[in-house]
Amino acid sequence: MTIHSTVLITGASSGIGATYAERFAKRGHNLVLVARDKARLETLATRLRQEHAVNIEVLQADLTKVGDVETVEARLREDSKIGTLINNAGVAQSGGFLEQTGEDISQLIALNTTALARLAGAIAPRLAAAGDGAIINIGSVVGLAPEFGMSVYGATKAFVLFLSQGLNLELSSKGVYVQAVLPAATRTEIWERAGIDINSLAEVMEVGELVDAALIGFDRRELVTIPPLFNESRWETLQAARQTLLGDIRQTHAAERYQTAS
Ligand SMILES: NC(=O)c1ccc[n+]([C@@H]2O[C@H](COP(=O)([O-])OP(=O)(O)OC[C@H]3O[C@@H](n4cnc5c(N)ncnc54)[C@H](OP(=O)(O)O)[C@@H]3O)[C@@H](O)[C@H]2O)c1
To answer: What pairing do the DSSP bridges indicate for beta strands 82-87 and 134-138?
Structure first.
């Protein structure tokens, strides 16, 4: 990534996004901070400008609204100083599938997947043409675990991982680095916003530790960074098993167990 290029961070008003903002300001990057709560973004921006002498712009947007997504897309397409996109804004799910309304499902998918993919789509052609830049997508270990009972949220996070792996294959040869970060439970407001008492969780990572670990993965140019995964070979084994499965998919005929006896 170009030294000191501008970093655009979605969901920068709290939690993981606000912590990324602090860390990149400390590294000397100018920032564009995106979220709905303008007052909170301004407070963070004022503090970081004072502490780190960087330029910080606040861009208020509700990324569930198409018009606001288009505004951020335009910025990503047109501002050649922006060299890194951190696709972080996200909401979790409150309640199980049977309690979710159609509107809940739409909002979750609009923010966690549609906005994320559109913003990546807005910046990627410019970065590919420049042969430089990075896209960081915040997924979740929930995207690996239907067992966690957060089906729609987990599905959006599985999308984030898949999209990141696909974009890496399409863009890395063009000089664009894509990173998927998969946190587990981290101490932020996301839990309260979803109506879950964080104290009911057995284990929680502090947000600073999570982002610092994710940045070590970023500096190493890892494709997938899972800070809470202790044995890294488990991930490699999973990917190898997936490749083996793909190698056994043949297209001309159905597998024997699905063939009718004739
Ligand atoms: N904390 C965890 O345990 C955990 C675990 C795995 C993955 N993650 C992922 O980490 C990411 C950041 O979450 P967090 O834990 O830092 O939670 P958070 O503190 O609740 O932050 C969420 C951010 O997204 C923004 N946001 C929410 N709705 C938005 C909308 N409609 N339009 C634009 N921005 C919106 C919020 O700002 P405004 O309200 O100002 O808009 C806030 O800045 C999410 O993608 C989440 O899924 C979190």
So the answer is: parallel
Q: What is the pLDDT of residues 60-116, one digit of tens each?
A: 999 999 999 999 999 999 999 999 999 999 999 888 999 999 999 999 999 999 999
Encoded tokens for 142? 């929930």
DSSP E strands, the chain: 6-10, 31-35, 56-60, 82-87, 134-138, 177-181, 224-225
Atom 43, ligand 1: which residue's CA is nearest? 11
Alpha-carbon gap, residue 171 to 12, rounded angstroms:
25
The ligand 1 atom at the shortest distance from the C-alpha of residue 187 is 1
Q: Which domains does the chain have, with CATH numbers?
A: 6-231 (3.40.50.720)
State pLDDT tens for residues 8-34: 999 999 999 999 999 999 999 999 999
Paired tokens of 154: 């987990």
Return the active site residues: 153
pLDDT at 4 over 80: no
